[in-house]
Every structure is written in C-alpha cells, then in structure tokens.
Amino acid sequence: MAAGAILARVAPHGISVSAAGLAVSDASVLASPQTDAIARLAVFGDDSEREIARWALWEIGQSVGVRPASIHDLYMARGRGDVKGFTVPAINVRGMSYDTARSIFRTANRLKAGAFILEIARSEIAYTDQRPAEYVAVMIAAALREGFRGPVFIQGDHFQVNAKKYAVDAAAEIDGVMMLATEAVAAGFYNVDIDTSTLVDLSHATLDDQQRLNYEIGVDITRHVRGLEPNGVTISLGGEIGEVGTENSTVPELRAYMAGYNRTLAAQAPGMTGLSKISVQSGTSHGGVVLADGSIADVKLDFNTLRELGEVARSEFGLSGAVQHGASTLPDGAFHNFPKCETAEIHLATGFQNMLYDGIPAALRAEIYDWLRINAAGERKATDSEEQFLYKTRKKALGPFKRQLWDLPEDARAALGAAFDAKFDFLFTQLGVADTAAAVARFVHAPEQHRPAPSGCGPAVAAAPDDPDAGE
C-alpha cells in the first residue's frame, strides 16, 4: 500500500501530516475508535503500515504530552525524602495488551495517579511476541484512547544475563542484553532493570567476591545504556542483589553490591549517574508456587526485610529504596503493607495473566491448552499434575494467540475490562499512588522528542474517511 494511503488511515480528522511533521488540531478525536484502528495497524499491519502507525502514535503523543519518560528524578526525590508514602506498581502487560493498558490509564485518570510503570521483561518480549517498538506504540495508543496526559514510564524488566548461557559464552550472552537495551531505548524504554543477580556466586568466602560479577557486569551494562540516552533523559536504572525465589536478601549483601558497583562505576566512568533503586528478595517467587490442584501456595513475605533494606538503600546510597518482584499473586490483604514499609516499587505480572485466562471464552481456553499440550510438552516435569503444567506454561501461548486475544468477543472484552478496572483501582489505592500525578509533574520532565517520518511518506496526505472504524 502507498505511504500516502497508509497515512490517511492513521491521520483522523483533527490530525494533519505535512513536510513539517504531524500536528494535532483537535485532540478530542484521539479518544475515539480511530485510535483503536491506529493501534491495530501498529501491531497487525504489514511492514509499512506498522512503521507509519508507530511513528504517528509517537508523534501524536509528543504533541499532546503523552511521552515516554524516565522515573529517575522522582526516585531521586524519594531517596532525598522529598516524597514518600507510596509504592510504584510496575505492571507487566503480557496479553490483550491494548485493552489491559487502557484499563490502567482509565484507573490512573480516575485516581489522579502518575507514579506507575508499564513493563515487559526480556523473556516476555519473546514469548508474548511484543518487540519494544510495538510495546511502546500500544502503550501510547492506550493512553491517548483514554485521554491520559502526562509522562508514561515504560520499563525493561529483568534485562537478565542467563547464568547457564553466560557459562558457555559470556561475551555472547552479555552482547544479547546490550543489543536488547539498544533496541529498547531507541523505542522509548527509559527505565531499565539490570538483572545480573543470576551471576552471584555463593561459593566465594566474602560477600564482595560473591557479588563481584553481579556488580561488574552491571556497571558494563550501565555504561552501555547511559551511552544510548536521548538528550534530556537520564534513564532510571535498577540493580538486583537477590534472585527471586531464592534466599532472602540481607543488608550486608546490599552494602557489598552497592559499594562494589559504585566503586567500579567511579573508576571506569567518573561522574556517571548510577542506580535509582535496588531489587531484593524477601520471600516471593515469580508467578507464585502452584500446587498440584492448580491453586497458589501461601507466601511468607518478610516485610521487615523490605523495610530494612529500603532504609539502608535510601540513607546510605541515595536510592529510592527496595523493589519487590513477584508480588501479583499475593493475597489482597498484603498490598497495603508495601507503602507502610516504604517499598519503592513492586512488580505485578502473573495475577493479571490469571485474570485473562479466567475471563476468555472457554472454547479459546481449551484451544490454547490443547496447543500447550503439544508445543510445550518438553517443559512438563514428571512430577507435574495437569493443572501445574498448564499454569506454568500458559504464558508461552500469549504470543501465538496474540491476535485471538485482541479479537475477543465484545462481551468478553467488556467483562475483562471491568475486572481489570476493579483490580487496578484496588491496587493503586492500596499502594498509595492515587494523587501522585502532582508529584510526577513536580519532579519529572519529559522532553519533546520528534522523529522523522518514515521514508516515502510524502509532504501531505488526504483527510481520513468519515467512518470512525476505518482501517479496522
């Protein structure tokens, strides 16, 4: 399809494209099905359609103030004690991504929340079939559709060095993380969690030696990411000292890691900005521990560990505090404790995936499970019950069934949307992020960053058709 025809499909009334760029004269049109059509092209269009739709969403966002941003300055304010009393939810948007993100932004508007993160991990990018450029476009589209205005914090979660692959070919594994960071930052990921905690070696006698690879390679990745920063952006970087699902982290481990990291960074890149937060282990596991009947085991989360580690992170190293992973399957009664102990951030993923699978039509769920029995058979352990196997592997179907999840019947989409709204409302309230839009506006500046139009777009395009569903 010619570039001009594609642009006509992504430039609804109130938006014009010319040689000077994209201009928005009527922002109200963005909260309409026309944005749905642009989002769909950004994901399911052909190569040209995707490129132009993603560019258009980025430029529209820049024009109206929906811009990918770094949460670094808010976290530094947290470290200084200028803000406190809330825990930032970092939400892994895996499946049915546009509708899920729309619910998040609806909730943010309703509660005047600004301090929340949309994230995707290195492993999730692969099995959900959401490369960074697509993910950013969908998150921006969801914000525009719901009339959200303000910085959008998009994060690379667990940009992780795989210990087994590192042992075979260290350079190749680190290069893989570096390449992903390059792709992600170019797309608009201005928050990155560096996870080299997999390289901690407890066989060494001293804590410094145990943490050495963790902090040295963490510095290598830090320097790489800092070299990718757009003008006016200081990417928020997180480190990690305890791999989720293992033993609880300790204050001496935190001090050993941070001292080694800061010492190494100062020696290699004097004056370079370091970390804004530190992820720790305090008793959770990713996805929860699934029992033979498919239910999730009770979690014994150590809030005293979180509180103590967070206090040391702030008082001794100026960080925002401690970060808790694997929190989405905790009981509802646990979440109000995170802001009480000043946890800086918690990561939420599997619980929303569970809600998605519970809410899709039974026939689609059965089709997915049949697919898993064939395509994920190699991941079944001899001790797994059928329920355990399906629970642990069903995330791997999110990519292959991405289109079916986007195309759910309207009644299923509406029911899931209502369920997500209620859950996000609960979580944002319990975590204390209602009314944080003011703090974000005070400390976070998202510079305007325009991108050149894709080649072949031409100087101008015709107006979009009157049909609001054009391009569907």
Task: Describe the protein in words.
With 472 residues, the chain is α/β, with parallel strands linked by helices. The protein has 2 domains: 3-64, no CATH class; 68-443, Alpha-Beta Barrel (TIM Barrel). The protein contains 19 helices and 11 strands. The protein has helices spanning 3-10, 33-44, 47-64, 72-80, 97-111, 122-127, 132-145, 163-168, 170-187, 207-226, 251-268, 303-317, 337-340, 350-359, 362-375, 386-393, 402-406, 410-430, 437-443, and strands spanning 15-18, 21-24, 68-69, 88-92, 117-121, 152-160, 191-195, 236-240, 277-280, 322-324, 345-348. The strands form 2 sheets. Strands 4-5-6-7-8-9-10-11 form an 8-stranded parallel beta barrel, surrounded by 6 helices. A two-stranded antiparallel sheet has the order 1-2. The longest helix has 21 residues, at 410-430. The protein is globular. The two termini are 15 Å apart. The model is unreliable at 286-291 and 459-472 (pLDDT under 50).
Task: Set out the fold topology.
Elements: H1 3-10, E1 15-18, E2 21-24, H2 33-44, H3 47-64, E3 68-69, H4 72-80, E4 88-92, H5 97-111, E5 117-121, H6 122-127, H7 132-145, E6 152-160, H8 163-168, H9 170-187, E7 191-195, H10 207-226, E8 236-240, H11 251-268, E9 277-280, H12 303-317, E10 322-324, H13 337-340, E11 345-348, H14 350-359, H15 362-375, H16 386-393, H17 402-406, H18 410-430, H19 437-443
